[in-house]
């Protein structure tokens, strides 16, 4: 336990000192060359003169708190403004606003949105939002999960980066550009090729009638929405799938499973809560999507069973009519629709975030 | 089970496995296709219409050729400036709070959750709120209201990405600053934030690119303007807004301009996304131990 | 010039974990004092109580008296003020990654508002010389970043950074444990030279290191200080059986 350096130390301290106390800097070992009076260097003097910055720290702290509170402030602002501005319409129609139907005096057909006579019902827009969003989910979810499975479990490592990058790009494309593409490319394709096929083969279901030759309508909106929400669902699914520990995969493989069986039992089963969360996030985005939908859904405030007919959605009608709305009641009705949209998307998104958070145990920031 | 039964079942399982693989590949192709188609269309249609006039001329009256979208580019620029002035400081401040002061507290968790939820709120709702807040009292549409709407959209995004970047700064760096007796505010700003700054800046860029493409909130705040305007107090044009108006018009010439505008927008976005990837993949914190 | 440290009935907790129990000790000025003990015995927590770094953890708590010089650091001063007078070198070198070598050394001063250019140049040079790094970096002071140096150099940079603010006490928490043997011995030589100017407290799990550099040694076990005496006595003739067991390698 003794080593060769001990003698050196031994000489260095001729008499072992057990100083009872600390007096300022008076050197005690004899061979030390003391600077006698404790000369406080300029540096030390400078630093001792600096305060303890309690005030600056406090100001800084509260400034940051203020910034963080702005997040709550934004929510409060939205709720406050929308509630106040939608009062006239709420006052006049109450809850019926969301499901009533009027009758057009001339055609005796159901009528929902009548700015001229100031009779408003949000029913067609709720219908359109639901139909287009569900259509989108129907198309997007299998594709998104398929892509996620491919990228996490099957894809050669080399391709993974570029493909993931491409899905990120898809998520970043602005809505207006999707709308442009939908109007000039998608709708003509639907009009010329897809819709006739659907009418011909599936017309018996009643979901595809041929009254609307424009190619616009619920289907067009559903397709473009599907393309738009794909990246969100896919990237979230990928994230929760990669969060599943490898040991789970290995355990299933060790039982002699094929790759698909391993994915199904070892990964998807564990990740399914998160995947549901991802789907809900996609739904949330689809519910609120405005520009692309308003460009292809036809902007007709009517309810039809056919997926090929024109319709409207909550976001679309606001975008379409707001700038030209003249009467206060019209504006108020539109804002009330906006409030309803806000509440619904908040609930859907909150649930989705909770599910995702529960699985990934950390809150990845989603930049949609 | 007998050997034959086992063999049959096994073959079925292998078949299923291969089918699924094929479906997954198919799904990937189907997903990538729109991306390529959209990019292709925008580049093809847009490149031919993109010329100098696009960038320096304002729109000509209907029927006349040769107009541009200069006013829209300016308008977007002005509103994005206002938006950044609001969104970046407040967002970074919020991020600093979440990472440096509130870690683990219920309050911070609530803020973080709310920010994430806000990110999913439809942008048109933000526009409605600002319409009610600013446009109505002022009795006119304005660039200012458009900028504010975009700004409050930036706040949650910037806040969360700032927080994430700050959390990546190793604790050792903070301790070193504390150990030197550096005041907390100085340590956070000059050391922690500075170390994370490449990541924070790219987060801001991402938020910037995202709101640059937003149309819905501008429809009834900025309204759009066919003429050249640089005033904060007047309706103002914006690139995505102009694209929207032109796309829905019946004029071919305006359609061409809309494609050109789309190309400009997409290039901006691809640049931003690529830059973000580049910075975060190389490691945000160069040399941090 | 260093000062002595007096510790009386120091207790520290991490949450409900009573990490330090009733520590009493006098650390003499201008000496090197080593603290040894097995992992988790509380020696790191102890030094972190000396510069009030322990309390930065939200679940940490401290009671007792710590006097540096004649200053009760928990009652008479704020943490920021204490940390300017007590320097610390950590286990893993942690230079500021975005700063040059010069800025790293000057950080403690610049970030406290000291901006005298010429004076800073002198201080940086002197600190780097005192930490035996000057010769290796003097041509790249402002060009190279602090993080581009080797591990041993980074640690000496951190020592220079701590010295630049002219502390009265230098705390070193296992400063060489992450370094290779050559760097380790350089740092040990450094400590030897520095002790005439500062009071040094070094935590180490390497007993040979303690024997090499320290004049006094304290042995910690399970949050208590078992024995504190001259290094020679601890290693040749310890009073407590537990110390002897540790020294001879029976545990730890």
Structural write-up:
- The complex is a heterotrimer of chains A (368), B (289) and C (252).
- Chain A is mostly helical and 368 residues long.
- Chain A has 13 helices and 4 strands.
- Chain A has helices spanning 6-12, 42-49, 54-85, 87-93, 123-154, 157-172, 175-202, 218-243, 246-254, 259-288, 291-296, 314-321, 328-360; strands at 102-103, 110-111, 113-114, 119-120.
- In chain A, the strands form 2 sheets. Chain A has a two-stranded antiparallel ribbon with strand order 1-2.
- In chain A, helix 4 (87-93) packs across helix 13, helix 6 crosses helix 8 (218-243) and helix 12 (314-321) packs across helix 13 (328-360).
- The longest helix of chain A has 33 residues, at 328-360.
- Chain A is flat, with a radius of gyration of 33 Å.
- Chain A starts with 5 loop residues before the first helix and ends in an 8-residue tail after the last helix.
- Mean pLDDT of chain A is 83; it is low at 1-37 and 362-368.
- By secondary structure, chain B is an all-alpha fold.
- Chain B has 2 domains: 3-49; 54-280, MetI-like (MetI-like fold).
- Chain B has 11 helices and no strands.
- Chain C has 252 residues and is an alpha/beta fold.
- Chain C has a domain at 5-94 and 168-247: P-loop containing nucleotide triphosphate hydrolases (Rossmann fold), CATH 3.40.50.300.
- Chain C has helices at residues 43-50, 79-85, 101-110, 117-130, 134-137, 151-164, 181-194, 207-213, 231-236, 241-247, and strands at residues 5-14, 17-27, 32-36, 60-68, 71-72, 86-89, 169-173, 199-203, 216-221, 224-230.
- Chain C has a 6-stranded mixed β-sheet, with helices on both faces. In chain C, strands 2-1-4-5 form a 4-stranded antiparallel β-sheet, with helices on one face.
- The two termini of chain C are 35 Å apart.
- The longest helix of chain C has 14 residues, at 117-130.
- Chain C contains 10 helices and 10 strands.
- In chain C, helix 4 crosses helix 6 (151-164).
- Chains in contact: A-B, A-C, B-C.
- The interface between A and B is large, with 96 and 101 residues.
């Amino acid at each position: 336990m003794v080593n060769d350096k001990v003698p050196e130390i031994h000489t260095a301290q001729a008499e072992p000192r057990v100083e009872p106390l600390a007096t300022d800097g008076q050197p005690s070992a004899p061979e030390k060359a003391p600077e006698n009076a404790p000369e406080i260097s300029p540096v030390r003097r400078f630093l001792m003169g600096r305060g303890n910055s309690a005030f600056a720290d406090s100001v800084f702290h509260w400034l940051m708190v203020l910034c963080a509170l702005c997040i709550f402030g934004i929510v409060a602002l939205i709720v406050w403004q929308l509630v106040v501005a939608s009062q006239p319409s709420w006052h006049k129609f109450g809850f019926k606003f969301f499901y009533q139907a009027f009758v057009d005096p001339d055609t005796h057909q159901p009528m929902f949105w009548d700015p001229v006579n100031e009779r408003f019902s949000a029913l067609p827009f709720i219908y359109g939002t639901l139909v287009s969003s569900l259509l989108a989910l129907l198309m997007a979810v299998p594709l998104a999960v398929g892509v996620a499975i491919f990228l996490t479990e099957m894809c050669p490592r080399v391709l993974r980066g570029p493909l993931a990058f491409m899905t990120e790009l898809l998520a970043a494309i602005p809505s207006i550009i999707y709308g442009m593409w939908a109007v000039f490319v998608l709708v003509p394709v639907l009009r010329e090729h897809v819709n006739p096929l659907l009418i011909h083969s599936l017309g018996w279901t009643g979901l595809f009638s041929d009254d609307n030759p424009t190619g616009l309508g619920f289907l067009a909106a559903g397709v473009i929405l599907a393309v738009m929400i794909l990246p969100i669902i896919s990237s979230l699914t990928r994230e929760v799938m990669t969060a599943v520990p490898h040991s789970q995969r290995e355990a299933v493989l060790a039982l002699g499973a094929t790759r698909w069986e391993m994915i199904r039992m070892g990964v998807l089963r564990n990740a399914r809560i998160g995947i549901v969360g991802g789907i809900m996030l996609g739904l949330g985005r689809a519910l609120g999507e405005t520009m692309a939908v308003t460009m292809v859904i036809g902007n007709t405030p009517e309810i039809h069973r056919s997926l090929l007919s024109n319709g409207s959605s909550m976001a679309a009608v606001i975008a379409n009519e707001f700038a030209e709305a003249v009467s206060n009641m019209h504006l108020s009705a539109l804002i009330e629709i906006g409030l309803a949209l806000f509440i619904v998307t908040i609930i859907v998104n909150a649930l989705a975030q909770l599910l995702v958070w529960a699985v990934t145990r950390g809150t990845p920031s989603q930049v949609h | 089970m007998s050997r034959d039964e086992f063999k049959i079942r096994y073959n079925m399982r292998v078949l299923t496995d291969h089918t699924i693989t094929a479906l997954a590949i198919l799904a990937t192709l189907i997903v990538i296709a729109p991306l390529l188609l959209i990019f292709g269309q925008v580049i093809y249609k847009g490149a031919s219409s993109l010329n100098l006039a696009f960038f320096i001329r304002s729109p000509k009256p209907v029927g006349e050729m040769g107009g541009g979208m200069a006013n829209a580019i300016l308008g977007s620029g002005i509103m994005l400036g206002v938006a950044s002035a609001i969104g970046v400081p407040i967002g970074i401040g919020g991020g600093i709070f979440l990472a440096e002061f509130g870690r683990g507290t219920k309050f911070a968790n609530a803020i973080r959750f709310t920010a994430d939820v806000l990110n999913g709120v439809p942008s048109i709702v933000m526009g409605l709120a600002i319409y009610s807040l600013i446009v109505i009292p002022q009795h006119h549409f304005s660039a200012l209201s458009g900028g504010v709407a975009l700004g409050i959209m930036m706040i949650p995004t910037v806040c969360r990405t700032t927080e994430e970047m700050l959390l990546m700064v190793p604790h050792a760096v903070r301790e070193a600053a504390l150990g030197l007796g550096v005041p907390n505010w100085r340590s956070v700003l000059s050391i922690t934030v500075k170390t994370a700054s490449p990541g924070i800046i790219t987060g801001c860029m991402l938020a910037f690119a995202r709101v640059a493409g937003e149309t819905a909130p501008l429809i009834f705040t900025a309204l759009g303007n066919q003429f050249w305007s640089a005033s904060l107090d007047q309706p103002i044009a914006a690139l995505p807004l102009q694209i929207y108006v032109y796309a829905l018009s019946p004029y071919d010439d305006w359609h061409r301009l809309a494609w050109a505008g789309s190309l400009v927008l997409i290039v901006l976005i691809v640049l931003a996304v690529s830059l973000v990837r580049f910075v975060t993949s190389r490691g945000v914190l160069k040399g941090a131990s | 010039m260093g000062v002595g440290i007096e510790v009386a009935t120091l207790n520290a907790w991490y949450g409900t974990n009573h990490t330090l129990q009733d520590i009493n000790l006098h650390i003499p000025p201008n000496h090197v004092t080593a603290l040894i003990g097995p992992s988790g015995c509380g020696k790191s927590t102890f030094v972190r109580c000396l510069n009030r770094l322990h309390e930065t953890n939200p679940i940490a708590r401290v009671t007792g008296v710590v006097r540096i010089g004649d200053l009760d650091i928990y009652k008479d001063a704020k943490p920021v003020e204490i940390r300017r007078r007590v320097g610390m070198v950590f286990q893993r070198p942690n230079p500021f990654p975005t700063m040059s070598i010069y800025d790293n050394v000057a950080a403690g001063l610049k970030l406290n508002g000291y901006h005298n250019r010429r004076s800073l140049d002198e201080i940086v040079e002197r600190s780097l010389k005192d930490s035996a790094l000057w010769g290796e970096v003097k041509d790249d002071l402002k060009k190279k970043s602090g993080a581009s140096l080797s591990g041993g150099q980074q640690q000496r940079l951190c020592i220079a950074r701590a010295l630049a603010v002219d502390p009265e006490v230098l705390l070193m928490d296992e400063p060489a444990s992450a370094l290779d043997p050559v760097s380790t011995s350089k740092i040990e030589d450094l400590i030897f030279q520095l002790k005439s100017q500062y009071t040094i407290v070094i935590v180490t799990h390497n007993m040979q290191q303690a024997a090499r550099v320290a004049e006094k040694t304290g042995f910690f076990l399970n949050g208590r200080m078992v024995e504190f005496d001259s290094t020679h006595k601890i290693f040749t003739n310890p009073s407590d059986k537990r110390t002897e067991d540790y020294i001879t390698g029976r545990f730890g």
